[in-house]
Every structure is written in structure tokens, then in C-alpha cells.
Amino acid sequence: xxxxxxxxxxxxxxxxxxxxxxxxxxxxxxxxxxxxxxxxxxxxxxxxxxxxxxxxxxxxxxxxxxxxxxxxxxxxxxxxxxxxxxxxxxxxxxxxxxxxxxxxxxxxxxxxxxxxxxxxxxxxxxxxxxxxxxxxxxxxxxxxxxxxxxxxxxxxxxxxxxxxxxxxx
Length: 169
Known about the structure:
The chain has a single domain, classed as Rossmann fold (3-Layer(aba) Sandwich), CATH 3.40.50. 37% of the residues lie in helices and 15% in strands. It is an alpha/beta fold. The chain contains 5 helices and 4 strands; from the N terminus they run βαβααβαβα. The protein starts with 10 loop residues before the first strand and ends with a helix. The chain has a 4-stranded parallel beta sheet. Helix 4 (100-109) links the parallel strand 3 (94-97) and strand 4 (117-119).
């Protein structure tokens, strides 16, 4: 049986992991958006999951993350937080971080994966800056979560064609 945070579709040959700090908002929302938007009836599928560099295991997404996703037709209510899982990181084709702090953490503790670790805001380029970061909405308003959802949604929509051309031959 597949891990709870992984979406399996047909032949899985692309594995993507979204990483944030606690894995309760941004990375869970990005995972849910990617799952909802990746629709390819033929060819290779996508396995997508999310983790946190300081993730506590098995916590639900924040209420506002669930609400904003639900308002946009995406159900993330069953997702649960996860800390970094080294075995999954090693198998990933692409690890997309929300902020420079997560990039630094991943590169420090997983240097051999450096060529697969990128900022979500600039992938496929690796030139992330503070301007390209997806800020953490935790502690913010519903409006902050809506803004974060929109940013994540735009990034997912931007990268899907690139992912298909790069990984789905």
C-alpha cells in the first residue's frame, strides 16, 4: 500500500517532494494542488508528497489551509505532516523548497542531492532569492492563506508543462 502522502497514477516515473518548515500549510497545499492539476491519462504519472524540515509527524494541515484548498475544490484534509524522510528524498527526481532556509537545510544535510533541490519559485533555474520565496502564512489571516494558495497555484501551473517536457517522454 502506498505511503499516505504520495499520489500514485499509472506508471510513476516522476517523483516530486515539496518542502517547507512544518509541513502543515505551504507544502501540503502545493502537494494538493499538484495532485489535483496533474491530469495525464497516458504516459508517465506523478508521485507527489510533502515534508517539513522541522516537521512533526502525523499532524493535520492547518484549518485555514484546509479551508482555502476546499474553497478551490481541493481536499487536503486527510494529509498528515511528515518530517524529512531520507529514503524518499534519495528517490525523488525533484525537491522543491518554499524558502531559502529550507534550501540551505536540505543542501547542508543532503549534499549529494543538490542537483535535485530547487526553490519552487524559480525552478528550473536554481537562482532563488527572497523575492521568489513562498512566505509562510501560519499565524496569518484567511486572506494570507488565499494569497499563498494563489502563489502556489501559479507556480504549479507554471511548472507542470516543464515537468511534462522534462520527465514525461
